[in-house]
Amino acid sequence: MVKTDTSGLTQLGGAAALPASPEEAVLERVPHTHEGERYVARFTAPEFTSLCPMTGQPDFGHLMIDYIPNKWLVESKSLKLFLGSFRNHGAFHEDCSVYIGKRLTEFLDPVWLRIGAYWYPRGGIPIDVFWASGPEPKDVWIPDQGVPPYRGRG
Amino acid sequence: MVKTDTSGLTQLGGAAALPASPEEAVLERVPHTHEGERYVARFTAPEFTSLCPMTGQPDFGHLMIDYIPNKWLVESKSLKLFLGSFRNHGAFHEDCSVYIGKRLTEFLDPVWLRIGAYWYPRGGIPIDVFWASGPEPKDVWIPDQGVPPYRGRG
Amino acid sequence: MVKTDTSGLTQLGGAAALPASPEEAVLERVPHTHEGERYVARFTAPEFTSLCPMTGQPDFGHLMIDYIPNKWLVESKSLKLFLGSFRNHGAFHEDCSVYIGKRLTEFLDPVWLRIGAYWYPRGGIPIDVFWASGPEPKDVWIPDQGVPPYRGRG
Amino acid sequence: MVKTDTSGLTQLGGAAALPASPEEAVLERVPHTHEGERYVARFTAPEFTSLCPMTGQPDFGHLMIDYIPNKWLVESKSLKLFLGSFRNHGAFHEDCSVYIGKRLTEFLDPVWLRIGAYWYPRGGIPIDVFWASGPEPKDVWIPDQGVPPYRGRG
Amino acid sequence: MVKTDTSGLTQLGGAAALPASPEEAVLERVPHTHEGERYVARFTAPEFTSLCPMTGQPDFGHLMIDYIPNKWLVESKSLKLFLGSFRNHGAFHEDCSVYIGKRLTEFLDPVWLRIGAYWYPRGGIPIDVFWASGPEPKDVWIPDQGVPPYRGRG
Amino acid sequence: MVKTDTSGLTQLGGAAALPASPEEAVLERVPHTHEGERYVARFTAPEFTSLCPMTGQPDFGHLMIDYIPNKWLVESKSLKLFLGSFRNHGAFHEDCSVYIGKRLTEFLDPVWLRIGAYWYPRGGIPIDVFWASGPEPKDVWIPDQGVPPYRGRG
Amino acid sequence: MVKTDTSGLTQLGGAAALPASPEEAVLERVPHTHEGERYVARFTAPEFTSLCPMTGQPDFGHLMIDYIPNKWLVESKSLKLFLGSFRNHGAFHEDCSVYIGKRLTEFLDPVWLRIGAYWYPRGGIPIDVFWASGPEPKDVWIPDQGVPPYRGRG
Amino acid sequence: MVKTDTSGLTQLGGAAALPASPEEAVLERVPHTHEGERYVARFTAPEFTSLCPMTGQPDFGHLMIDYIPNKWLVESKSLKLFLGSFRNHGAFHEDCSVYIGKRLTEFLDPVWLRIGAYWYPRGGIPIDVFWASGPEPKDVWIPDQGVPPYRGRG
Amino acid sequence: MVKTDTSGLTQLGGAAALPASPEEAVLERVPHTHEGERYVARFTAPEFTSLCPMTGQPDFGHLMIDYIPNKWLVESKSLKLFLGSFRNHGAFHEDCSVYIGKRLTEFLDPVWLRIGAYWYPRGGIPIDVFWASGPEPKDVWIPDQGVPPYRGRG
Amino acid sequence: MVKTDTSGLTQLGGAAALPASPEEAVLERVPHTHEGERYVARFTAPEFTSLCPMTGQPDFGHLMIDYIPNKWLVESKSLKLFLGSFRNHGAFHEDCSVYIGKRLTEFLDPVWLRIGAYWYPRGGIPIDVFWASGPEPKDVWIPDQGVPPYRGRG
Ligand SMILES: [Ca+2]
Ligand SMILES: [Ca+2]
Ligand SMILES: [Ca+2]
Ligand SMILES: [Ca+2]
Ligand SMILES: [Ca+2]
Ligand SMILES: [Ca+2]
Ligand SMILES: [Ca+2]
Ligand SMILES: [Ca+2]
Ligand SMILES: [Ca+2]
Ligand SMILES: [Ca+2]
Ligand SMILES: [Ca+2]
Ligand SMILES: [Ca+2]
Ligand SMILES: [Ca+2]
Ligand SMILES: [Ca+2]
Ligand SMILES: [Ca+2]
Ligand SMILES: [Ca+2]
């Protein structure tokens, strides 16, 4: 196995405080040692929370991010801090979901990236957002995310 | 098998309109042909709805009613109409659940009766209400209701 | 292992037509070779059907029968024919469930017997019936039947 | 993140009564700040109810709406009120499901929209309706709705 | 919403006896008010039963019917009676499943129709039959039926 | 149904900001109109989050609170704000779970109260805390909370 | 419904002993009365067992067979005996699965046939085999087999 | 940890052929190094098969055995061979289940032992047998076996 | 909330290597700030592995530990290291499960402690071990562990 | 059935120690007796563990490997030893998953191979890796792996 070059990382190891906002969060990346391989890495983040921009009340979401790396892999601690940076930040559901997808796409320049955002219900009608950076590549294995539909009670 | 005496029923057969309120709903009962037998009849009503008394918005619930009959069985069409009578009626969750339990207990004079009311979430925190007419009789088989806990998303 | 005495059976082996009614169905039994052992035999019958005595329309139920044998074991083919005899017979849900429990109890004279009858929904509100021949014996292992609650859709 | 323009909305914030019928319900929309992005927003509404046009009895459904926005996003409170407007309104299952799909399509002019309507059983045989505004776009990620089939009991 | 024309129906409303055989069952249909829309209506019938033509013993099945209407919608009460007409009728599993699919296709002249028949096990090896009137139209949304595989015990 | 007296409430209706800490959160209560009835109210809060007191990183938990009211019912909006007050507050898992149970018990003086706190995994080994104000009353119906065990992957 | 011609069958009806080996097992077939219809018949056999050719210890498998009939239907009792013939016969997992698929294909000359063999774990790592007689026909409805992945414990 | 004394074992290590019948199977045991501890060991055997004594056809069962050891632990390879010895042996379901329980109880002289035998369906109505050597000890933790009920299809 | 005294801990914070054996592992504890409260803390460890003492091959288990603290809480990082110390250590399933329970009981001197050890299958028949330090206290809430039974395939 | 040639194998039969590293592990293969058949063999390995290269702490994964054999089948005991060789070896999740896929592809020269690696969560956000040796062949049946998404708690 080849060695991952972690020399450029600044947040790994020490204790890192949550960034105050998504804009202040610093994403980090490491060189992709398997460049040219077309495969998917999936991150599942059931611990996402932000604030409702209308009421200031907490919102919760279950996020799943799939991407096909190109020259970079996302460094997972910086991804965690980036997602944590929404904690005290107001964001509409559709907008927040698309923003995360676009920011990661811009930073990682992947072959392809998508995000499924499954928001906890508000007013009895939860919203899910399914965003991708482009059409699904036909030559790569991309399993369904498989989150069961919202059910209410009973 | 003995014959159930349905001679006193008024709502069976024809088309019956939803009562305008729980108070106007007419519960009906038939003589219990197995008087003395101690067993449980369970009704599961996943189609309950009422109005929030503060906001007028619809509320939804999944109700389960268990009872040990004494001299009467509830006539199921009248039970359906009774539950339907909350449709355009304001009721707090705790109060509504207990009211249904008490009204049925009063009307049927059962050996024992309980209601589990599993309300759909409002504000992210659903409430369940578990009311019984008295302690669970130790000599009767009363299975758990088995409704899975509310899960949110993911 | 001891040998089960099947000499008194009349329905086993040949092709037996469905009895025309529960009253005409002939239950059969074999001597219990483990008399004195206190254990439970459970039969699960997800293929039960009868007719609604009010409308003549078919009703369906999922039945589970638990019993602690005394001197007799029920012969399972005769049990199947007995349950099949309701096919073209009108019966109320509560009454039918209790009748099956009582008829088996009378015929087998078991230490204890119970029936859980889980009826398919009519009018959106299914009924379950939980009947036992007496209080659950405290010295015998009797697992829950574990049927999940009716859920509607979603 | 860009700012959503909510200046044209009339129902947000204050308490809004349920519209008396679907025709009287006022759908609202906000400009889509990510115009050009092709992604799916999904709304899951397990709290839908209407009346049977033949009998006046309540019907219940679990609805799921997927759409690819074009210039507009649906304002979710108005969507909720629109769905709530069927509460005391008679509608056949097929017709009601298709009507909701068409009305939203007409109002939002989306790239594509579909509705899955999973109705609670009547007479033992529930109906589902799967309507879409056109063929599924091949270049957009559209997960299955994943509602399990109706199961009856057992 | 447009009005469904039910003027030609003969079985709706009154109490209708089960037809004695599939041949005697009368299917009914109503004009399709959304002609030209390409969508799927799904009926799920977990309450199907027939007789084994070899032994006369009852068989049970879970049926799911999907169709894309053309000029007609099936009237659901007549569908229920048609399925009920197999109750005392002998039919092989493969043949019965295909027959239902073909009879409905012939009567409704739909754009497309399919039936999934999931039979209860006989001899430890249940059979499922998946029949369609033709290849799946590529421009219509047709969700999987999603019935879990037979599992035996444990 | 009797009327709940909400005259003493201060947080209902208007927009209320999240309290800065649990100590600053103001719980509110309404008189219990069914005093003397012994039943359980259950709140399920899958949207709980706090901070790790050692690292400052977010923690997440799924909380379930069961109580038997005495003279007071908890006002649910104040409960929500109380739980939300942990959002930017450091707390050990065991301590936090017990604190919530004790604070509610002190404030509501219920017949009995319990809290099940199911924390998201840290280091591969999640902790659950099951606290009750005293032994389970034998004469009241208290269903299991039914949260499935943590499973890891696969 | 047309009549299935069973005149050529030799094993149906009487009691048939398990064949001593797959080679000795006699598969039987009946003429396909719906020749030309392209549909799938699925057999699910959770009761398969053979012997490990290295150690002689029993192996167990859950088999699912899908086929599109051409001129013949497999007679199900002969299929059962064929599968039972592996009971005291040594066979490697991959080889056994492919052999069953090929033997059935050769005998039935179907339009298409596949077998999914889900073997019970040995050494902690179960093997599944998915064999088909050729590419999946694009014009026929072939649902997924839907067996959940092996999970170990927890 | 103390050392288990395996000196008396004869079947461990080498390849052992399946015994020809339960009577010929040799159970083995090792001294219990935690004598006096009251705890439960559970074996789950989803790979059990025997022959029907009436027809010679294979039967299948899922067995679960719980016991509280006294002076001996069962050696697991000999248990496996004992269960495998039923492979070509005729046994009635009730009798076979009780026999296994009794034979193990006699051999191990445990504080307590029970067996749950969940047989695969025959004739649509599977039987389960729940046998114990005596009443459940009240001072030992004995979790439910948790096998879901037989469900048929759908 | 009171402050947990972590002054005596030696392994927290820095990187700690896995102990070479259970005997070398150092468990740590912190004073229990809620002494006198009778509640349960549950740890779920699906990542347990040890070696088979006969073959040296890896074994895997899913462990659940419940305890009622007395004067001490276990420090969770030391618990993790203790469980990790079995990684390259030979241990029989029964012995290993009981050893962990006893070692924790000795070290924490809890009111009560139990361990459920659900081992991955070997030879098709997994073993579970359920050990407790004494009878279940009747005055404390101790939910079932709820691990589903081993199922094999299908 | 043809005979598998196992003459070249060196690890089968005797007790084989875990290789000290993946590099030292010796994969073995047997000639493929069904060369030319295009089918999938799937191995499911829920017992995978390695070490984190940054902290030395254990990592756990659930691996699923699908391949279409060409001239060789992997010998399953050598596969097990290969996977076991990561036990005391440091490896990043992405790198480790891809390495296993590539090493097997190189050794077996299959028509196609893929690996799904479902890692246990670290820091609340588990990673999955989906690697394939090339695009999915369109003419072979390759079922989804069907692992449910990570869920956290509740
Ligand atoms: Ca896809
Ligand atoms: Ca529902
Ligand atoms: Ca109970
Ligand atoms: Ca979640
Ligand atoms: Ca019980
Ligand atoms: Ca699709
Ligand atoms: Ca099984
Ligand atoms: Ca309890
Ligand atoms: Ca696992
Ligand atoms: Ca398909
Ligand atoms: Ca118990
Ligand atoms: Ca069913
Ligand atoms: Ca308990
Ligand atoms: Ca199985
Ligand atoms: Ca696929
Ligand atoms: Ca949750």
UniProtKB/TrEMBL annotation, chains A, B, C, D, E, F, G, H, I, J:
Localization, UniProt: Cytoplasm
Binding site for substrate: 74-76, 93-94
InterPro entries: GTP-CH-I_C/QueF, NADPH_dep_7-cyano-7-deazaG_red, QueF, QueF_type1
GO BP terms: tRNA queuosine(34) biosynthetic process
Active site annotation, chain numbering: 52 (thioimide intermediate), 59 (proton donor)
EC class of the enzyme, as a word: oxidoreductase
The EC number(s) this enzyme carries: 1.7.1.13
Keywords: Cytoplasm, NADP, Oxidoreductase, Queuosine biosynthesis
Signal peptide: none
Role summary: Catalyzes the NADPH-dependent reduction of 7-cyano-7-deazaguanine (preQ0) to 7-aminomethyl-7-deazaguanine (preQ1).
The protein, known as: NADPH-dependent 7-cyano-7-deazaguanine reductase
Organism field: Celeribacter neptunius
